[in-house]
Design a protein that fits this description.
This protein has 13 helices and 16 strands. Strands 5-6-7 form a 3-stranded parallel beta sheet, with helices on one face. Strands 8-9-12 form a 3-stranded antiparallel beta sheet. The protein has a two-stranded antiparallel sheet with strand order 1-4. α3 packs across α8 and α8 packs across α9. The radius of gyration is 21 Å and the shape is globular.
Length: 414
Amino acid sequence: MSENGLPLCRSLEDHVPLFRGNPGSCEELPGFLSFVRLSRYAAIETLSRKPTVRNAQRRQLASHGNAFPTVPRAILVRMDIKTRNIVTPAADAPTSQPASVPAPVVGRFAPSPSGRMHLGNVFSCLCSWLSARSQGGSIVLRIEDLDDRCKRPELAAQLIDDLAWLGLQWDEGPYYQHDRLDLYESALHQLQDAGLTYPCFCTRAELHAASAPHASDGTPIYRGACRGLSADEITRRSALRAPATRLRVPTVDDLASDVIEFVDRTYGAQCEALATECGDFLVRRSDGVFAYQLAVVVDDAAMGVTEIVRGCDLLGSTPRQIYLQHLLGLPTPHYAHIPLLMSPDGRRLSKRDRDLDLGELRTRFGTPEALLGWLAGQTGIAPDTTPRTAEQLVEHFSWDVIRAHRENITVTVE
């Protein structure tokens, strides 16, 4: 419990009374991920898609102005790890298709070209690919290159070549985030027009002060130092340094909107109180770069992504992304986080340290079948390390197996 008596929980085990259904089901959680939409929010809707078309045109988002009803209404988002139906509107909301018709599964690869892919990146891409293919779904490839350190075309080309060598073929893309800035700008304007953002002048040193608590992903919990600045003070500070832009989260007193709950396909029921466990968060950095949370939310919706498979180090980002999806009127995908691959000394594999990068792995294993078979055996996807193609691994893939091996995995290559 927080100092205000609010339930602060990270998992099902942390807050059992909230969960009364069967494991993996939220049907008996009244108000599960329940919010109120206000008429001031502008809706973003995805335009029609052209599935299974590689190198398709960049998808666009269209603003439809004041598209919400004038009377606030609750929106209920249910996630069940046994179904593909992700978003269930409240009873008074129109639906485009019967609730019994499952949406086509669309997964995605979203790597950053900041270095050569390492074994952990391969594992994440493999799980995303196997999950989508095992459900008859498709894969979108998106290159996340907003940050200056990721604007390296040669690394993006190498990344694409590595995926092709592995046999992890995609159905759409590649899309590049640096080509999509207008979409992020449009989404940010909608949040600004709704009065949901404010300029923040805090320095990195101030944010990382030793006394500041940190969120689950290591981000300092912002305590709102710039939230109430006057117009005159904003003007004065803006003359000294460019501000970042932060998104307001519900206040600690607004329990109905503050607590975000969802079921992760691997790690089960999760919840986070935004005000006390996250705080107002960045949607644009002071250098003008759009924040990861905003960009991926806009892109996943525009690309029709229904299932997000990624490392468990990003589990803490999910509540913020769900909150943004709600504010922008976007659908909520299905989330599945997977364990990290660790080096024998206990470090997570990283591009910076060139841990088991794909250049070394391609040389060592020689064929993609040998590498994928060994990786599948190491992580429990397959019963042994027999060389297998990605297609041959589809029959072995099961989320039950991933859940059974959800602790981080130490790998060594002899």
